Amino acid sequence: MMTLFVSVYPAVSIFQLLVGNRFVFSTDPQISKISQQLKFISQYDYPQIIYLALLILIAVPRIANAIKAPDEPQRLEKHKKWMVYVVNYGIFQAVFCIFMSFLYDADDETRYIITTVSQLPTVILIACFGLPYFFTCVIDYNWPIIAALIATILTSFPLIHFQPNCYAFLIVPWCFMIYFGLLELYLMHIDRIYDGLFHEINRLELDPFE
């Protein structure tokens, strides 16, 4: 049985941009008494607005061109070729940001600058290739998605436990980027990516053993 769905990866990559990446030490003495895990609070900053504006400016014409692209065999191959680069960098960025969260304190300016800069290539790659792929392709996720979800949960919970609570909404998408990125690379490798949404879905030759 086939389970066709749009790619989860671009959406999760964008979600990390919507979460505050700058953390400041709370001056409320009551918070420290309750829990050291709550001592940092999240703040939004202007790079997030710039990144989202850049994402929209680049993505809209790219999506329009992808939708109008002719239905030819090379179309899917081009998408898969570029998504390999998108996903590989995204996995690197997620692992790197998690590492930085342990290397520096949450409110350290160096950590904030480095992790914010590391998100810029992700914004450009998702805008140029990830979102056109999202709007014009579908994936047969099938049973491997269960393994990716379990791995994400089993990794996220320990990381959240050992980090201040301010990281919770970043660690989860970072873990999603890692495991769903690996899943997407695997599915691209075994040709489980198909035309979809604004393009006619190809006639699929189903494996008799599925």
UniProtKB/TrEMBL annotation:
Membrane spanning residue stretches: 44-61, 82-104, 110-134, 141-161, 167-187
Keywords: Membrane, Transmembrane, Transmembrane helix
Tree of life domain: Eukaryota
Protein name stated in the entry: Uncharacterized protein
Protein's organism: Caenorhabditis remanei (Caenorhabditis vulgaris)
